[in-house]
Ferredoxin--NADP reductase (Zunongwangia atlantica 22II14-10F7), 353 residues
Amino acid sequence: MIKTDILIIGAGPTGLFTVFEAGLLKLKTHLIDALPQPGGQCSEIYPKKPIYDIPAFPEINAGDLVNNLMEQIKPFEPGFTLGERAETLEKLEDGTFIVTTNKGTKHHAPVVAIAGGLGSFEPRKPPIQNIADYEDKGVEYFIKDPEVYRGKKVVIAGGGDSALDWAIYLADVAEEVALVHRRKEFRGALDSVEKVSELSKLGKIEMITNAEVVGLKGENDLEQVVIRHKDEARGEELREVDHFIPLFGLSPKLGPIGNWGLEIEKNAIKVDNSYDYATNIPGVYAIGDVNTYKGKLKLILSGFHEAAIMCQSAYARIFPDKKYVLKYTTVGGVEGFDGSKKEAKKEVVQSIG
């Protein structure tokens, strides 16, 4: 039986930052994740994807963000159960919980924080009849290593942030980049739309709007895509490609967590954002992309904020008779659970009495 103060379901960026916030309060943490390594989607799906909305980082690759978070939480020595999925939640008479994984590993904690991101996920695939024939033969739904596309002809389909960001990134890597979208308007950040437009004017990205990829051709590997234009005068065109990357988002599923008695709305866990992101089960919280409330923004920085607030509530739940004074972190070192100072970038001046 693994015992901890806060059991975190999900080891993505929000789950990892929860370790830091809990550590400032001297709360021990343990994380469960179905993936074999920490980092969630940032490690598994797009480790080289640039992220632009992390404070103090004009641009940082998803993998580097995870590495930095892992370095930041080192002093607090979190535990990890990786490669196992949280399967069942049992509430004991004393109000604590036992969470058991699909491999039978049991975890005991007074607080459970669900930070499972989008849950288990699968890419949304375009309705192209023979697309499965070319998967891993020129069709990819995720970009793990951009160097695979160096000097190649690439067609990206989609109108959201991922499609825009990768088109921008690959413009300096691939020989040709074409961005195909069904409409003229894009759903991504305005700044990204402007960058793609600028790169289009420079001839680095070909923007093909009011069109979609409807067919794939090739003997064994992908050789051509069929692009159908809404303008009947243009009809269909064949384009030689090495890679077709449809980026239409992920189809999220909560998996076993959906059977824990939590209040669910549109495949997300409803929480009370007026105070602490608690669920309808006292002692169970949900933070990051897995939760929903009025005004919710599915951003990593939102998850970081929710983690900080949640940990304050968790401390009060675990130690109802203790008082603490939240101050600041400043230059110095972070104090680990063994009382030693780590020569790092922050000093814990959290006062707990």
Notes: The mean pLDDT is 88. Helices lie at 13-24, 41-44, 62-73, 161-170, 190-201, 300-318. The domain at 125-246 is CATH 3.50.50.60 (FAD/NAD(P)-binding domain). The chain has two domains: 2-121+250-352, 125-246.
